[in-house]
C-alpha cells in the first residue's frame, strides 16, 4: 500500500467503507480493511450519508446494523468525523427516520437555520418531538 499512513490523514470514499462493512468482494474487502487499519481517516458527513443510503438500500441493513456500523467508525481512534452531527443522525435513525435528515437538520442549525422545512411527515414529527422548529410543507 506504499508508506503505511505515516501520520497522513486521508479522506475516505464511501466505496471503501462499503467494502469493509459488507465484505462482499474477495479482493477489495480485505484491502479496504487493511487500508483502514493503516491510515488515519477522515469521514465527511456526506460520506456517512451515502454509506447509510447504500447499506440500507442495496445491502438491506436494518437500523440496528446501520447504527452498529456508524458507531464502530465513531469509536475508532484512527477515524475523524463530526461526532455531534453523527449523534443527530443516529437519533433520527433510532426514531425511525433517515440518518441524512438528522445530519441535515443539525448542520442547518449550526449554520444559523432556525427551522427545518420538509415534505416528510416522519422527519417533521421527529424534529417536533425533539422540541425543534419544523415547517411541514403540504400540497393539500
Automatic annotation (TrEMBL):
InterPro entries: PIN-like_dom_sf (IPR029060), PIN_dom (IPR002716), VapC_family (IPR022907). Mg(2+) binds at residues 13, 101. SUPFAM superfamilies: PIN domain-like (SSF88723). Residues 10-124 form the PIN domain. CDD domains: PIN_VapC-like (cd18683). Keywords: Hydrolase, Magnesium, Metal-binding, Nuclease, Toxin, Toxin-antitoxin system. Its cofactor is Mg(2+). Its EC number is 3.1.-.-. One of its GO terms (molecular function) is magnesium ion binding. Transmembrane segments: none annotated. Toxic component of a toxin-antitoxin (TA) system. An RNase. Belongs to the PINc/VapC protein family. This is Ribonuclease VapC. It comes from Rhizobium vallis. The lineage of its organism: Bacteria, Pseudomonadati, Pseudomonadota, Alphaproteobacteria, Hyphomicrobiales.
Amino acid at each position: 500500500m506504499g508508506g503505511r499512513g505515516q501520520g497522513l490523514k486521508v479522506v475516505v470514499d464511501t466505496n471503501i467503507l462499503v467494502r469493509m462493512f459488507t465484505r462482499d468482494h474477495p479482493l477489495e474487502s480485505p484491502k479496504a480493511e487493511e487500508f483502514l487499519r493503516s491510515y488515519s481517516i477522515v469521514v465527511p458527513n456526506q460520506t456517512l450519508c451515502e454509506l447509510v443510503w447504500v447499506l440500507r438500500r442495496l445491502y438491506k441493513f436494518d437500523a440496528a446494523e446501520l447504527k452498529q456500523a456508524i458507531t464502530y467508525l465513531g469509536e475508532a481512534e484512527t477515524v475523524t468525523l463530526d461526532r455531534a452531527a453523527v449523534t443527530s443522525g443516529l437519533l433520527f435513525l433510532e426514531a425511525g427516520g433517515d440518518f441524512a435528515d438528522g445530519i441535515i437538520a443539525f448542520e442547518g442549525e449550526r449554520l444559523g437555520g432556525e427551522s427545518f422545512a420538509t415534505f416528510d411527515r416522519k422527519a417533521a414529527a421527529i424534529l417536533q418531538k425533539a422540541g425543534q422548529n419544523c415547517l411541514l410543507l403540504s400540497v393539500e
